[in-house]
Amino acid sequence: MPLLSDPALADEGARKIEFAYTRMPVLAELTSRWAENKPLRGHRIAACLHVTTETANLCRALVAGGAQMALCASNPLSTKDDVAAAIQRDIGAEVFAIHGCDRETYYQQVAGVLDIEPTLIVDDGADLTATVHEHRPDLLPAIVGGTEVTSTGVVRMRNMAADAALAYPVLPTNDALTKHLFDNRYGTGQNTIDGLLRATNMLLAGATVVVAGYGWCGRGVAARARGMGAEVIVTEVNPVRALEAKLDGMRVLPMRQAAPQASVVITTTGNRDVVTVEHMRAMPDGTVIANSGHFDLEITVDELTTTATSRRYVRENCVEYTLPEGHRILLLAEGRLLGQAAAEAHPAEVMDMTFATQALAVRYLAENTDELEPAVHPIPVAIENEVASSKLAAYNITLDELTNRQQSYLTSWQLGT
């Protein structure tokens, strides 16, 4: 049986899903084609994703392709209860998702989707993949492959492969250019700043924003904070990314030096213990801290809770902690994924590309089950090109074409200086 907060919310969710669908032309065109040729007929898909309007439209495409599908939430705070109800009622996927649920209920939801005995896994953070391997190995023989849409999840799956623990092939959707160049940079950049402003209503112009990590998500957050008038400091462990941040005009400092200057600290690393109480004790009074990474490990929230002398709720998604030194730290969204928990998640326009890439990766796995060994395989370039070309067509953008003479030059070596 599905796990929903309130099925009566379905009408409101349906309106939001349709609004997003109008801004997802690539996925809409794919859905239309798949409704006719059913490339996923006979497959059972278990998915663990943020339950948002954009995810609903990915479900629409996969179900239109002929798959039986069950969906659970990849983060309790990102779940939209009205959207979950509409997916269950209108799209045909069985849904296990309740906003704000506790950890026990979260894993009940994960177990619920696995009861369909999936042949394909669609993951966001690798919780579903890890659960299958650790607790439901009886399901592994039927699973022909999986996809993973986040940086954090891809790292987990590569670690599984390195340990020879991965039992089926995985396509890392996050590694596709049509995903991370747009979703991570523009989507995360926008929704993180959106979540920050909704939770605090603070003025970014003149503020000092410390961005931990300068991968694609960090680049996006830093660019948007800077565009709103903030001074941006980047912290990094990777010398190449640190150099890139410097040449992009950012200050680059270690966290221990950046913390005393911060108005806002946002983590985007995918690692743990990036901001600790030691750092917080050095921050100015009223510093805002938030996380834009997938898991709530980047800020040591447990350490903050046990160290603080008091805490109080001051705004939605904003809790004030007073440290023994007497200064206050404002933690947003419990240290969870800020743009998903306190804002509207990624815009439909970028998720159009991400989920079209995800859907085509699922089809590729279904069609190539006998050719792929258990490993993390690259997304085929043909999938990236198909998504990008379709998106350009939706924007009415046409490209130049190489002449025969140009093509010949690019494939020869004889012509030189």
Automatic annotation (TrEMBL):
Cofactor(s) required, per the database record: NAD(+)
Origin: domain of life: Bacteria
Enzyme class: hydrolase
Assigned EC number: 3.13.2.1
Annotated catalysed reactions: S-adenosyl-L-homocysteine + H2O = L-homocysteine + adenosine
Keywords, alphabetical: Hydrolase, NAD, One-carbon metabolism
Pathway: Amino-acid biosynthesis; L-homocysteine biosynthesis; L-homocysteine from S-adenosyl-L-homocysteine: step 1/1
Keyword Hydrolase: yes
Protein name: Adenosylhomocysteinase
SUPFAM superfamilies per the UniProt record, alphabetical: Formate/glycerate dehydrogenase catalytic domain-like, NAD(P)-binding Rossmann-fold domains
Ligand binding (NAD(+)): 150-152, 215-220, 236, 292-294, 346
Organism: Saccharopolyspora montiporae
GO MF term list: adenosylhomocysteinase activity
Keyword hit for Hydrolase: yes
